[in-house]
Amino acid sequence: EVQLVESGGGLVQPGRSLKLSCAASGFTFSNYYMAWVRQAPKKGLEWVATISTSGSRTYYPDSVKGRFTISRDNAKSSLYLQMNSLKSEDTATYYCARREYFDFWGPGTMVTVSS
Amino acid sequence: DIQMTQSPSLLSASVGDRVTLSCKASQNIYKYLNWYQQKLGEAPKLLIYYTNSLQTGIPSRFSGSGSGTDFTLTISSLQPEDVATYYCYQYNSGPYTFGAGTKLELK
Q: Cβ contact (<8 Å) for B98 and A46?
């Protein structure tokens, strides 16, 4: 059974950093692109980042480019999202998802950016 | 950026109704269009990928159609458990974008 479990969310001040993790199981992690998607409170979904199987290619929307970094450790079946220079508009539930088109999702981890 | 417009934003229907949700892209996205279902308090779930391919485990009452800029999600006979918000998503070209969602409720 495919399982994705995010961790690392919490309350952080504007301008600070936070690193999210996603532990994957139930499939061969190294064979799949992985992604992060977020959802602000009571809002819609926003794609945040995608990474290739080897980690050599990464993709971001302009809203997070230069501030967020997606990475992976295939030996640990883990996905990461390093978030720097956080802003209040980054407040959201962050989901880890499999494939470029998100065929499986984790339950999410909440990030609140507030002073 | 490709804008995805979903309509209606809110839809009320009765159990057993045939329900149609619309999604329009601002540019040609060929068939690179997915549909997701999100129930209250849960993570989204993939229903349909590449316009009309049913994800494993999804009931056959869900179907998708379209190409280019106009797409449709159809529920052939609405069930109580289908109450949710439905999102379309294009992955033809970056930045990849979601529609704002259609909230489906029971009448």
A: yes
User: B17-66, pLDDT tens digit by residue?
Assistant: 999 999 999 999 999 999 999 999 999 999 999 999 999 999 999 999 99
Those residues with Cβ within 8 angstroms of residue A80's Cβ, 6 or more apart along the chain or in another chain: A19, A20, A21, A22, A70, A71, A72, A73
- B30 contact residues in A (CB cutoff 8 A): none
**pLDDT exceeds cutoff 90 at B106:** yes
Contacts of B101 in chain A (CB under 8 A): 44-45
Q: Quick check: A2 and A22 in contact, CB under 8 A?
A: no
Can you read off the two tokens belonging to residue A56? 């050599």
Taking an 8 Å cut-off on Cβ atoms, the answer to whether A103 and B55 are in contact is yes
Provide the chain B residues 16-35 that lie in CB contact (below 8 A) with chain A: 34
* Inter-chain touch B43–A107, beta carbons under 8 Å: yes
B99 and A44 in contact by Cβ < 8 A? yes
Q: Compute the distance between CA of residue B71 and CA of residue B7 in angstroms, rounded to an integer.
A: 11
Edge-to-edge order in the sheet of strand A10-12: A10-12, A109-113, A92-98, A34-39, A45-51, A58-59
pLDDT value for B94? 85
Q: Tell me: the pLDDT tens digits for B54-105?
A: 999 999 999 999 999 999 999 999 999 999 999 999 999 989 999 999 999 9
User: What is the torsion angle, in degrees rounded to the nearest 10, for the CA atoms of residue B97, residue A100, residue A49 and residue A12?
Assistant: 90
